[in-house]
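Checked the freezer inventory, then went back to the computational side. Two predictions to log before the end of the day. The first one is the construct we discussed on Monday; recording sequence and tokens without edits.
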Amino acid sequence: MRNGITGLESCQCRRAKSQKNHIACAMLVWNHLKKMANILGNTIARLKHQLLSKYLVSQLKYPAIKMTVV
């Protein structure tokens, strides 16, 4: 499992239980991305980039949180 894909290296959890939960979630993400990448014939990194790009575009067009100028 590559850490840069799942964000495992940026974990700031201090307690052992929190660290275990974070690692377990990262493994679940990795497994899901791997499965989807295989189905789509893509790499995991490219799949993640595409998902994040689509999300960013959608948030720029239709923000979930409205910004106000004070």
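The second is the one RB wanted added to the comparison set:
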Amino acid sequence: MSGEMYLDIEAFGGLISTLDTAATDMTAANNRLADAESSDLGGADLDRAAANFRDRWKYGIERIAKSTGTMVTGLEATRDLYALQEQLNTDALNTVDNCIPDPEPASPSTDAGPSLWSGTAPASSPIQDSSLNLGL
């Protein structure tokens, strides 16, 4: 697949969902920890450790959650634009395909003057070593 780009929209949606859930969970855990009291946590040592952790990590967790939320917004826009571009490409290719007339068998004579038809059909010469074969 050298030189090709592909985005699995369903898998990308899963990444977005996971990140969104992570941001929500981090914020909720940080809020629960901030609202906890020593009687909620257990002993004094655990309470001090939790308070210390909360003081040191509160800002960082808030920043990570905010950045994750911003990333989710950007990834959603990327997914939506990619899906739109795929649809536009499909529509454009279908339009081009609909404009190409079906090949009609060659007629040995025409009304446009003397015929150059020799009675033998010209040999087909497809383009060699190419993925594009127009049957020329």
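For RB: The longest helix spans residues 44-99. Residues 124-136 have pLDDT under 50 and may be disordered. Let me know if you want it refolded.
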